Amino acid sequence: MTDLNQLKTYKPTLHYVDDGREHGILSPFKPGKQTLPKGYQVSPKFKALDCDIIFEKDVPVKLRDGVTIYTDIFRPVTDEKVPVIMAWSPYGKSAGTAPRYENIFGLIGLKDNIVSGLEKFEGPDPAYWCAQGYAIANPDERGIAHSEGDVSMMGTQEGRDGYDVIEWLADQSWSNGKVAMSGTSYLSFSQWYIAAEQPPHLAAINPNEGLSDGYRDIAFRGGIPDEDFVNRLQSNHVNVADNKREDVTEEMKQYPLANHPVWRDKIAKLDQIKVPTYLVASYGNTLHTNGTFRAWRGIASENKWLRIHDSQEWPDYYDMMNTADRKRFYDFYLKGIQNGWDQTPKVRYSVLDMEGGNQTDVAGDAFPPSYVEYQKLYLNGGSRELVSAPTQKDIPVTYAPEMGPGKASFIKRFDQKTTLIGYPKVHLNVEAKAADDMELFVVMQKLDVNGNQLSEFVVPNHGALMHDFTDNGGTVMKYKGPDGRLRVSARHLDEEQSTDVIPVHSFDRVEKLTAGESVPADIVMMPMGMVFYPGEQLRLVISSKNESGAIVPWSLPYQAQNKGQQVIHTGGEYVSYLQVPVKLG
């Protein structure tokens, strides 16, 4: 059996500054137990506690290989045994008051006092959950802060460590033996790896927007290496000792293909997840949307629910109505309260109109709903339209990244109200005139009746600074339509996993282009739910440049490597089309 630790690349962890500020007010190592009284505030800017809370700080937990990690536990003052919600990430168990995370909430328009500051960044707030009869466990995972061991990012090691902590929590004298998980982003996708290990006392999970394939969703989306956000994740790998951290950006250079064991280990074993699941997703999260919907399709849970919202993950997660909805799920599975959760629609989706009239919580029988039909809109190179039938003769469209806009677009105007909900894809026949490879960036835009591009903020802050940040990026904060990307030399499809609706690239080979060669390329688009009214238009943009820009305002956008003329063939034997999911009736 391959020893992954021998294949992974490790470097020293970054230095952990234990000053009670950089990593949160309560970050200094101080094992002990105290009661935080009702009305307690960790800082004046945060919410006061509604009840007394027992706070056990820096509790040691020994993992199966002898490594000791530390966790903070918040639990209600009661003689009754209570269930536990665990938040798993490398972000620091006291980071709810870390300045860098306070600034993020302020940037997007959330107030600090919606939470107590006791929560892990992107995790459940003890102030709410302890008042509802739950304990919250915030571990510092292996190699983080004062925890021993070397940091691994995504995969089996995190899964096994999470398993061990769950079983330890279930065995505590105050625990009722049932443990759940919750959180967004990293705290979401870590749940896939842990749940796949099937810890016996894991009773339910609640992933809110998280990738499920480390290669396809973050490191090499579309086969294109993009190191910036991976580097930002790794900046959280800080420790007080001389520990090591997995350097995933270095692994990207050493192992560029997805069939390497290091990358295979970062694919969540979705078919091993059988625990009840309440999954939350959105259409516009460039980091997480594809991975979240892949997880929805792949998990083996018989009891699973999906809610697709029209916001960004943080405002949605901390919204009080959504938190109450989550509580119903947990009450049902962790407390055995017969509150009718099992009658909740299995799918609740959103339909966006990008003009202030979004529909949310629309009940569906599946995603996509059974009342969806896939239709092809063919690219017409002569009229630059999306039409119902291909042209008999190829009409190529040529553009160059070095000159002009470096892109080509195609438009369809709708004569009647049309709702698209499901998985779009783009199938192109392309040619590179003076290069052996090309990178394609595709986005579907909605235009109003006057031809103006529509977009919408998914965060509460609509101010000038947010406009500046999102005009050419900030994709998780301003939605402009489904997008996708592909390096054409990585176009090979996995025949076993691909379907006509959802292409899956193998990313296990490099197939360079030759001069004058036209090749087919399927581009994975993010799922969508969008309505078009009469007179409005759909614009498909195919570009040699990264049209979507940076993922978040503090991230660097990927710079495309294209050179020379690029050709899209649009007819005859080289049919190119956009396939869209059309709601019937």
UniProtKB/TrEMBL annotation:
<feature type="domain" description="Xaa-Pro dipeptidyl-peptidase C-terminal">
    <location>
        <begin position="327"/>
        <end position="579"/>
    </location>
</feature>
<dbReference type="InterPro" id="IPR029058">
    <property type="entry name" value="AB_hydrolase_fold"/>
</dbReference>
<keyword id="KW-0378">Hydrolase</keyword>
<dbReference type="InterPro" id="IPR013736">
    <property type="entry name" value="Xaa-Pro_dipept_C"/>
</dbReference>
<dbReference type="InterPro" id="IPR000383">
    <property type="entry name" value="Xaa-Pro-like_dom"/>
</dbReference>
<dbReference type="InterPro" id="IPR008979">
    <property type="entry name" value="Galactose-bd-like_sf"/>
</dbReference>
<dbReference type="GO" id="GO:0008239">
    <property type="term" value="F:dipeptidyl-peptidase activity"/>
</dbReference>
<dbReference type="InterPro" id="IPR050585">
    <property type="entry name" value="Xaa-Pro_dipeptidyl-ppase/CocE"/>
</dbReference>
<dbReference type="Pfam" id="PF08530">
    <property type="entry name" value="PepX_C"/>
</dbReference>
<protein>
    <submittedName>
        <fullName>Putative acyl esterase</fullName>
    </submittedName>
</protein>
<dbReference type="Pfam" id="PF02129">
    <property type="entry name" value="Peptidase_S15"/>
</dbReference>
<dbReference type="InterPro" id="IPR005674">
    <property type="entry name" value="CocE/Ser_esterase"/>
</dbReference>
